[in-house]
Amino acid sequence: MKILAINGSRRKQGNTSILLQSILKAADQAQHAIEMISLGDYRIEACTGCEGCSGSWDCVIKDDYAELIHKLDQADAVILGSPTYWYTVTSDMKRFIDRCYSLIQYPHNRQQWIGKYQDSHKVCVTAAVCEQPEESMMGNTLTLLSDFSRDIGLQLIDSVAALHCFEAGRVRGETTVLEKAEQAGTMMLQALER
Ligand SMILES: Cc1cc2nc3c(=O)[nH]c(=O)nc-3n(C[C@H](O)[C@H](O)[C@H](O)COP(=O)(O)O)c2cc1C
Fold it and tell me: Most exposed: 126, 137, 182, 188, by fewest CB within 10 Å?
């Protein structure tokens, strides 16, 4: 199995990275092929809304996006993680999500769409981190990742929120959250094996 973890944080040793590693623990123990990427390492231009992807699954902008989509195409499971920046995902993650407009098509009307991966049996877990202790201060970070994953046709297995984590590494002290993250990773593998 190929597991792809996509991190919206540029802090390589940050809280999102640690949370993703906890979700990946079961896959690592089962010796599945794991790749964790930081979106900040890729050149992702902003979606221009040109509609050049209507009628195809490809984006017309030529940058590192195609490489990322190749990784998504190859993955059996995808983990999406982002810190909260101003009540939502980071700009790296938002740019990536916007460009994934090419992963949905509207064959009949604008109210109904199909996701590229909807019959692929790919599974997904989403994860989000924020500094404040109240979930409302996370804004739509986790719901955006989850709604996006479902829209492109991934089967969402679970979501993990880590609150009250400001400085890089703080989430290591949140044992309950890390246990929940490991459980989400185990459930993800079980869904893959079904
Ligand atoms: C530009 C910026 C905006 C932020 N906005 C919020 C916010 O709206 N709510 C919140 O609770 N934390 C906010 N934070 C705190 C981060 O979500 C927090 O530090 C998180 O642990 C960073 O994750 P990382 O270590 O994976 O990079 C913000 C941090 C930055 C740098």
Answer: 137
CA of 162 relative to ligand 1 center, distance in Å: 11
Scored b (16 or more CB within 10 A) or e, 89-111 reads bbebbbbbbebbbbbbbeeeeee
Walk along the chain (194 residues) in steps of 10 and give the mean pLDDT of each run: 98 97 98 98 98 95 98 98 98 98 95 95 98 97 98 98 98 98 98 92
Contacts 24+ apart (CB under 8 A), 87-92: 87/137, 87/138, 87/139, 87/140, 87/141, 88/139, 88/140, 88/141, 88/144, 89/8, 89/128, 89/141, 89/144, 89/145, 90/8, 90/9, 90/10, 90/39, 92/8, 92/10, 92/39, 92/40, 92/44
Q: Whose CA is nearest to atom 2 of ligand 1?
A: 85
| Nearest alpha carbon, ligand 1 atom 29 | 85
d(CA 143, CA 27): 24
* Burial of 78: CB neighbours in 10 Å, binned 0-12, 13-18, 19+: buried
Give the integer Cα–Cα distance in Å for 19 and 8: 12
Quickly name the fold that domain 2-193 has. Answer: Rossmann fold (3.40.50)
Atom of ligand 1 nearest to the CA of 18: 26
What is the identity of the amino acid at 45?
E
Ligand 1 pocket, 165 CB below 6 A? yes
